[in-house]
Automatic annotation (TrEMBL):
Gene3D superfamilies on file: Adaptor protein Cbl, N-terminal domain
Membrane spanning stretches: none
GO biological process: cell surface receptor signaling pathway
Xref: PANTHER family: PROTEIN KINASE DOMAIN-CONTAINING PROTEIN, PROTEIN MID1-COMPLEMENTING ACTIVITY 1
Protein name: MCAfunc domain-containing protein
InterPro entries in the record: Adaptor_Cbl_N_dom_sf, MCAfunc, MLKL-like_MCAfunc
One Pfam family hit: MCAfunc
Coiled-coil spans in chain: none
Amino acid sequence: MILEAVRTVSQNREECRHLVRRVMMIGDLMQKLQGWDMMQEPEIRRPLDGLDDTLREAYVLIVSCQNCSIMYRFFMGWKQAEQFREVQKKIDGYIQLYPFISQLDITRRLDKLCSSANPSCSQIQVSRGSFESLQLCSNLKFLCS
């Protein structure tokens, strides 16, 4: 039991370092998003706010990990390990949404560009959560060349 507790404390220390690096990296990327048009869209803003809240939760966990005594870490290491797993799972859940958020933003921008280039250009139609048709203006073909 003692050996297992020592391993948990050591593993938690590594998890804490990994979490610090991950929170800093994601936080830096989130800073880059501030002020972008897409951040004004509530559907996009909500998951990013959730990620921001989770990063704050991770920060509190990191600080608590760094400020607790070795005895606390020894006896409560299992609890900290569970907290690390939970916050990592939450971060992963929000990060998995980002490709979808990015796709929505790109589609919106292309549609806006298409509409301004040719007002008769058909809009992107979305029905039942899936893209039924995606038609871009022929005027935008120059972007691919």
